[in-house]
Every structure is written in C-alpha cells, then in structure tokens.
Design goal:
The structure is a single chain. The protein is 37% helix and 24% strand. With 201 residues, the protein is of the alpha/beta class. Strands 3-2-1-4-5-7-6 form a 7-stranded mixed β-sheet, with helices on both faces. The longest helix is centred in the first third of the chain and has 14 residues. The structure holds S-adenosylmethionine (SAM).
C-alpha cells in the first residue's frame, strides 16, 4: 500500500472537507465563475476526440468540460466523495476512485495510452511525498509516445518547482514548456505558479 495521500489525511481530520470543497465549486459555477481555463488549454493541445486522463480529477470540472468538447475522458481521484460529485454533476466521462500511486488503468479494463494527462489544481502537492516519483512514473507509462503530461500547482505548498522537475526527469518526463499561468504567461524565477508541459524523454 502506498503512503496515504495528504488530501485523505485532511479528510480524515475534517470529515466535512470533501463536501465543503464540492459545495464551494458548485457555488462558484452558479455564480458564473470561469472554471474552465485549464481545460481550454488542454482542448487546444489535442485533436478532436482525444483520449484524456484527468489525474486527481476532484469533482470533475476539467473532465466534464473536456467530455463536452468531444474527448474521451477518464478521471481518477482518491476521494470517493469527489468522484460521486463528478458522476452527479458531469455524467459522461469514466470516473474512477483510485490512488494515482497505484495507477494501472489497463488492469481496470481501460485502454492506455492517453494523448494528454492533465493534473490541475495543486494535485501534486496533495500526494504523499513518498509517492511523488511513483505517480510521475505511472503517468509516463500511461501517456502516448507523442502525448503530453500537463501539471499545474502553486509555490509554497511543500513541493518546490525544481524538485518537481527533477522528479519528473527521473520518471522519464522532460519539460517541453514551462508557464506561470494557464493562459500562457511565461515561467520565470519569480513565478509563484507552474504549469509544466512534459513529454516522454
Ligand atoms: C485541490 S483538488 C483539485 C481537483 C481538480 N483537479 C480540480 O482542479 O478541480 C486536489 C485533488 O487531488 C486529489 N488527490 C490527492 N492525492 C491523490 C492521489 N494520491 N491519488 C488520486 N487523487 C489524489 C484529491 O483527492 C483532490 O481531488
């Protein structure tokens, strides 16, 4: 068994955490907040009908958008409450409960590889630190030879950007493009957010 994800530790300490998270995003959607910026970038990176893995999908805001745009979407998340919300709010994609440190979709009857694996919303900072390289290695194994892995997360959350890039390299993923926002602003030494577009090396 992999070490428990930091997200599920938070949930164990606060049983309302998942439901509060779900309700927060439902409220933002009702208020008309743009919750699709990350998904629009992913949509622009692929052809119609691409195979997309939403890794750490939460309640499904990215996967739901990408499904509606005509892609084949699989979403995986360790939190069963969030997957239940994804099924309720965004029917269509294949939503699965699972720890990314144990990701093996062919063993669950789902074809790999994927044209894009997207992991938005600080997912990598909620992994158990001991599983970070394993998760990146599994993403490498699930991405198509010409596919990309796109990861977005903020600074100051316990996973320095240079450590993440070193882990990605060790897992066989090299950085193609580094951005500081999902709307394509360049990454630099002062950036407090990283959107890394990686490909198999
Ligand atoms: C802040 S939420 C982001 C959710 C979604 N990606 C989004 O942007 O709306 C972080 C997510 O990472 C998921 N997560 C953390 N560790 C995980 C793991 N080891 N395996 C699968 N999902 C994980 C959590 O369950 C949670 O849904």
């Amino acid at each position: 068994m992999p070490e428990q994800s930091q997200w599920m530790r938070i949930v164990a300490e606060d049983p309302d955490h998942s439901q509060n998270y779900i309700e927060r995003f439902r409220r933002l959607a009702e208020e008309g907040m743009d919750l699709s910026g990350e998904a629009r970038l992913i949509d622009a990176m692929v052809e119609r009908g691409a195979r997309i893995l939403d890794a750490g999908c939460g309640p499904g805001r990215l996967g739901g958008y990408l499904h509606a745009a005509g892609h084949t979407v699989v979403g995986v998340d360790v939190d069963p409450e969030l997957i239940a919300a994804a099924e309720a709010d965004h029917p269509g994609p294949t939503w699965l409960v699972g720890d990314l440190a144990e990701l093996d979709l062919p063993a669950r009857g789902i074809d790999a590889p994927f044209d894009v694996i997207v992991s938005a919303g600080n997912v990598v900072t909620f992994l158990a630190p001991s599983t970070r390289r394993e998760v990146l290695t599994r993403w490498r194994a699930h991405v198509a030879p010409e596919g990309r892995v796109v990861v977005g997360f903020g600074a100051g959350r316990g996973y320095p950007f240079d450590e993440f890039l070193a882990d990605a390299k060790a897992a066989g993923l090299q950085a193609d493009v580094l951005l500081s926002t999902w709307d394509l602003r360049p990454f630099g030494p002062e950036s407090d957010f990283l959107v890394a577009i990686l490909r198999g090396s």
